[in-house]
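dude i think i finally got it to work??
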Amino acid sequence: MTSPSPAAEGSPPVIAPLTPHRVLVLNSGSSSLKYQLLDMQDSSRLASGLVERIGERGSRLVHSPLTDGAAEPRERTEPMADHTAALKAVAEELAADGLGLDSPQLAAIGHRVVHGGKHFTEPTVIDDAVIAEIERLIPVAPLHNPANLTGIRTARELRPDLPQVAVFDTAFHTTMPEAAARYAIDVATADAHRIRRYGFHGTSHAYVSRRTAALLGKDPSEVNVIVLHLGNGASASAVRGGVCVETSMGLTPLEGLVMGTRSGDVDPAVVFHLKRVAGMDVDEVDALLNKRSGLVGLCGDNDMREIRRRIDEGDGAARLAFDVYVHRLKKYIGAYYAVLGRVDAVVFTAGVGENAAPVREAAVAGLEELGLVVDGDLNAVRSGEPRLISAAHARVAVAVVPTDEELEIATQTYALVRG
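look at this
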């Protein structure tokens, strides 16, 4: 591997042209495969795509070549029995653009892995021992880790010579102190069954907290940030000096904020109550809290745009859903303000956080005594760039920073294999 050319102190390293500098990022779901190919010389995207309904009727791959801004996405519908077939189809599409998996410029494949437990605190080169540990964590991530493992095994079969790196959603949150990570239950039981707060969306929280510091013109070690990742899944984190000290999701991604279909915080006794009075078994309660709760449970919609449209038409159920969502969000902002003691910025990210101005305005409304004030005109601006939306006189910055989990995974992967 060619060594990088010397660079002036403080400037980015110059990567020699022949050095492998591309990273393929894979995010494997149970029946889907998302991917992006990035050039780490300038963090640009070369291609991206999604394979849907793997192992089902109507398998479909939508591939977007990004090397040519005028290129249209390509779609292919054909049977894809498993992830091996899906990844081979992805490889064919990449090869058609001159970006094949056999390219000498491909440095590594980075895999999103949802649950890394306490063991994995940073990106890790995948070997058999790593796979075994990810398998051991399946009981605490039964929907996600098996799918992630399928993608890992498939990629290793196709490119056994290439470094494969696992980047864990939970890793950023492993810095939480025990007082934040522990649940107040019997310690022996908790330890025997790995019950603690792990947190999720870690790659997003890491990326956004770092970009927020840059937006403020400071080093991450100098700022305290509350990150609000608001998508269909939603989570909050308190980041002190670049280090996570608290987060809202727990053993699973169910705890915390109100989400699209998930309840977030709920009295644990609700489970026992539903068992006793409604005769619901564990699987039924699990489905209720994960798939039929949150916004969709409150008003039948989990799309914030549709909810806002219904509110404008006077729909009471939509208004209630919005108010419950914002109330929980505001409660977490206040709680994490107390945890941090000093807050330099509250930042919104992900689909709802980046695009729903009414949510941002409502979440901060009434918090003027904490130094949080949104400027209405700035908040109304639609942009794909990081930006401040706080009033000029506000003591605490309010920001919108688009997340980029794929870039974060690629950056961590490349840094590890280059290191």
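Residues 316-340 form the longest helix (25 residues).
im so relieved honestly
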